[in-house]
Amino acid sequence: MKAANLTVRVTPDPADMPAKATGTRSDRFGRFAARCSHYLGSRWAFVSAIGVILVWGITGPIFHFSDSWQLVINTGTTIVTFLMVFLIQNTQNRDAKAIHLKLNELIHAVDKAKDRMIDVENLSDLELDEMARTYEKIRASAVQRHKASQTPAPR
After folding, report:
1. What is the pTM of this model?
2. Which of the two residues, 100 and 57, has the higher pLDDT score?
3. In angstroms, rounded to a whole number, what is the distance separating the alpha carbons of residues 136 and 146?
4. Alpha helices, DSSP H only, in 1-124?
5. How far apart are CA 151 and CA 155, in angstroms?
6. Radius of gyration of the CA atoms of the chain, in A
7. Chain-centre distance of CA 56, in angstroms?
8. pLDDT the model gives residue 30
9. Contacts 24+ apart (CB under 8 A), 80-87
10. Which residues lie closer than 8 Å to 60 by C-beta, 6 or more apart?
């Protein structure tokens, strides 16, 4: 007997979707940063960087390994590093926000989950410490229950 191929496609309710902000500067920078991260994180960007270093190294004898020759690579790498920090941070911020939203949706969808965990990343350090202590107590209690169930009963 052959198993049926079943595909379930869930279409989000448009009423639940936030309005898309188009054309804003933040949105354009986000798309630019995502595109740059995609291309600059590729193997071709890495191969290109190796190529630049090789060309620079090969030109060393031509320029007699001068201070200007060294300054070219130092300046270039400093500028690229400086700009990449901002692109990487933007990408990390977007990824973190997306992960938090996905976790919030999962918490909301599970009946027994505590809704107070939604947006927990926005709490103060004191509130996070207090919540951590609460969950440490829960874990310690679970460990004690587990140990108690593992010890054999006296005969």
Report:
1. 0.58
2. 57
3. 15
4. 25-40, 43-58, 67-109
5. 12
6. 27
7. 34
8. 83
9. 84/40, 86/33, 87/33, 87/36, 87/37, 87/40
10. 69
